[in-house]
Amino acid sequence: MKVVKSLLLGTAAGLIAVGGAQAADLPVKAKAVEYVKICTLYGAGFYYIPGSDTCIKLGGYLRAEVALNAGGNYSAQYNGVFAANNRLTNYYSMRAREDLNIDTRTATEYGVVRTYFDAVFTWTTGNYGGTGSGTGATQYSGTIGLNAAGTGLTGSGGGNVNGTDGNLSGGALGVYYAFIQFAGFTMGKAVSQFDAPWINYPGNNFDQLVGGSGTTNGVTQFTYTADFGQGVTAAFSAQDQTQVFQTNIWNTAGMSTTGVLGGAYGSNDLGGTRAPDLVGMVRVDQAWGLFQASVAAHDNHVGYYGASEVTGHPEDKWGWAVQLALQIKNIPTGAGDVINLSGVYTDGASRYNFQELAATSYSMFGSSNAAYQSIGFAGVSDAVFGPGGGLELTKTYGFRGAYTHNWSPYWNTALYGAWAAVNYSGTAKGLICGSAAFATLTGTCNPDFNIGQVGVITRWTPVKNLTFSADFTYSHLDQKYSGVITTPALTGVAKPAATYELKDQDTYSLLLRAQRNW
């Protein structure tokens, strides 16, 4: 028994010793959980990234909408099958979109280092197309115009859709903004410094408003901004011209009657990139509103007169643009009411008037008492040239504006409008109107035109960050042609070979939207 007792006591002592050693290895107190902390340095919604001194904010929106009698979402029936006024034209287009943005900021000895990223995921209903190549409605196929981003949509079969949008499990991804800001510099894809702060939208949801610049989807740039205090800033920027800041440089040797009636006065003979657009901006931002003056220089660089380099080429010509913008706040009509106005003049830089989402070709059909149907057509260019000649720069000017009134904290209405004019030089008119493409024209040939737009939008916000809106837009194309023209079949829009009356055209659209911001 003594032996057994000694063995038990020894074993117990050994276990206590081991247990004590293990207990000594454990921390005396568990480490506190590091909770996410609110960052108050940069406004509401920012949090510190755990383990760092960087603040981050996540945001975005989800949007559902339908556009009635429109050229795709946000747009008007200006060209393609959208403006054909026949069985190829859509009566509606529907879209769902999710936006995600990420904003990070870190305080440093050089000031705040900021990164910003904004991307969208979009699903849009498909669009019908037609080349007239079939015997039945289900056999039309081909290019069907432009989507909201300005890219071509193609498809085949009766229910044509562009590549991914419109497919059951399809959709599209877009990167709007991705930039770094450091020590006064902005590097990456951001809104152009030329733009007014409201970009394309002085009061509207409609995308194709003319009368000024607007880079809703951003443009790649390298910018320095100086802050002089008291709300006065100035910026100088070099920005990519190829993405959104060039329209057409037409070589009139490529003109055809069918092309002209589609709003193209020749082949678009853009050359490779040589120089970015150079932009300067000065802004005064005060309690009463703001004033901004912007200027831009744009290099027009083309390819060749003919199919190869031995045919020669015109020399480059620099175009330019100037824009003034004014915002008036605290007006006596009501709290939060605002007036936004801008005006622009361009010479060889037309995209600074016809912004990136605005149409640069117009081909609109209507009724006629003098011919098979009527047509109004027009086109926008940066320059025009003919064989052996130099560049003839195209001049434009225009304005846009809106007045927004708040009826209550839940309702507001905006009245908005825009107008733009395009003027071709005498030499350019001679090249265009002297082409064989106008051989069947009986009447006046003049490629100058005006486009006017007016609209009204009403928004209802029943709860914070949830808004329902209805946006009605009317457009008038004031083209300067008159008489009639006979054309071969316009197969892309299923129009027959016939004589068409040249006539001004009108169109309207309605955009209904629900949007939840977060």
UniProtKB/TrEMBL annotation:
GO cellular component terms given for this protein: cell outer membrane; pore complex
First-listed, main subcellular location of the protein, grouped into a coarse class: membrane
Phosphoprotein keyword on record: no
InterPro entries according to UniProt: Porin_alphabac
Domain of life: Bacteria
Subcellular location(s) of the protein: Cell outer membrane
Pfam families: Porin_2 (PF02530)
Family stated for the protein in its record: Belongs to the alphaproteobacteria porin family.
Function per UniProt: Forms passive diffusion pores that allow small molecular weight hydrophilic materials across the outer membrane.
Protein name (Swiss-Prot/TrEMBL): Porin
Organism: Bradyrhizobium diazoefficiens SEMIA 5080
Lineage: Bacteria, Pseudomonadati, Pseudomonadota, Alphaproteobacteria, Hyphomicrobiales
